[in-house]
Design brief:
The protein is an alpha/beta fold and about 350 residues long. The protein folds into 2 domains: about 200 residues, Isopropylmalate Dehydrogenase; about 140 residues, Isopropylmalate Dehydrogenase, CATH 3.40.718. Helix content is about 40%, strand content about 20%. The chain has 12 helices and 12 strands. Strands 2-1-3-12-11-4-5-10-8-9 form a 10-stranded mixed sheet, with helices on both faces. A hairpin with a 5-residue loop joins strand 6 and strand 7. Helix 1 packs across helix 10, helix 1 runs parallel beside helix 12 and helix 10 packs antiparallel against helix 11. The chain starts with a strand and ends with a helix. The relative contact order is 0.16. The model has no long low-confidence stretch (mean pLDDT about 95).
């Protein structure tokens, strides 16, 4: 199990440290952890947010556990040197095209959701987000208009192979779950979205057992608040998926709870919490490490063929929460390390029960 650890910026090192504690507590055979610099930390040390040394570590790994990148102190840099280019570069260089972001209600935390408890309790969905296309990777720049005004532009584009690949990933996921897939686009306005819808319909012919529906992104945003329990699997593009997955996290109760996986066609994956670097609380020891710990569980399940160990982590997190462990974002007082302690205690309790 060759795991690359890229802690990154802000609260990244703090939450990664707790996930590493949990991984080591599992006593997994062949576990190998190799650290690398990314983001602002890498730029300050090497002059680039994704140094060649880090990229080599990533390529040699079975999976990557990623903290976060982002630093307001780097906003003056040219775009290709900003911290966020580390994660974009890893997605591009490793071919990480499929982002899986589960959102599931945790009974002990239903009251933390902004939604009514009976609405929040029904949430159990998976967002499958395409990662290598759309405006994030399209041509971009600035130019002057005919009137001499400054204009910025970003090209939104997908080809049919990119759409087909992510659609198949989503159909496969839906087949393993409840058999329902909602494809989210803006086909009434965007030609990119019309192609997306056309290709998804073509792929659907290979999955007759999966129920497919289409939804415009604005309606999907409303339905995630009105009736999130109606969704099983959502498949959508890079930009829409970024926004909807963050919205789903707050429907569950906290952005500090949601894990994510970014996979390539060979099964190698990058696993990270979706909360970002949170520079406003960095270094204070108050960040919620649960999303990173749950990302480690996803890593074990999807890239390292260690589903039983992943189950143990998820059960330990649920037990800690059931016993009242809460960080500040969940209305409690525990710090980052104390929440890690609570998860480790739950893991130890599993061993005691087994004995």
């Amino acid at each position: 199990m060759k795991i690359a650890l890229f802690a990154g910026d802000g609260i990244g090192p703090e939450v990664i440290a707790q996930a590493v504690r949990v991984l080591r507590a599992l006593d997994l055979p062949g576990l190998s952890l190799t650290e690398g610099l990314v983001g602002a930390a890498a730029w300050r040390a090497t002059g680039h947010p994704l140094p060649n040394e880090t990229l080599a570590i990533a390529r040699a790994s079975d999976a990557i556990l990623f903290g976060a990148v982002g630093d307001f102190g780097c906003d003056h840099l040219e775009r290709h040197l900003r911290p966020e280019q580390a994660i974009l570069g890893l997605r591009r260089e490793l071919g990480l095209f499929a982002n899986l972001r589960p959102a599931k209600a945790i009974p002990a935390l239903v009251g933390n959701s902004a939604l009514r408890p009976e609405v929040a309790a029904a949430i159990d969905l998976l967002i499958v987000r395409e990662l290598n296309g759309d405006v994030y990777f399209g041509e971009k720049g600035r130019r002057a208009t005919s009137a001499g005004l400054r204009q910025g532009y970003d090209l939104m584009a997908y080809d049919e192979a990119e759409v087909s690949r992510i659609a198949r990933t989503a159909f496969e996921a839906a087949r393993r779950r409840q058999g329902r897939l909602c494809s989210v686009d803006k086909a009434n306005v965007l030609e990119t979205s019309q192609l997306w819808r056309d290709v998804v319909i073509e792929v659907a012919a290979d999955y007759p057992e999966v129920e497919l529906e289409h939804m415009y992104v604005d309606n999907a945003a409303m339905q995630l608040v009105r009736a999130p329990g109606a969704f099983d699997v959502i498949v959508t593009g890079n930009l829409f998926g970024d926004i909807l997955s963050d919205q789903a996290s707050m429907c569950v109760g906290s952005i500090g709870l949601l894990a994510s996986a970014s996979l390539n066609e060979g099964g190698q994956g990058l696993y990270e919490p979706i909360h970002g670097s949170a520079p406003d609380i960095a270094g204070q020891g108050v960040a919620n490490p649960l999303a990173t710990i749950l990302s480690a569980a996803m890593m074990l399940r999807h890239s390292l063929d260690a589903g039983a160990a992943a189950d143990r982590i998820e059960a330990a997190v649920a037990t800690a929460l059931d016993h009242g462990a809460r960080t500040r974002d969940l209305g409690g007082t525990l710090g980052t390390e104390a929440m890690g302690d609570a998860v480790l205690a739950a893991l130890e309790q599993q061993g005691s029960l087994a004995a």
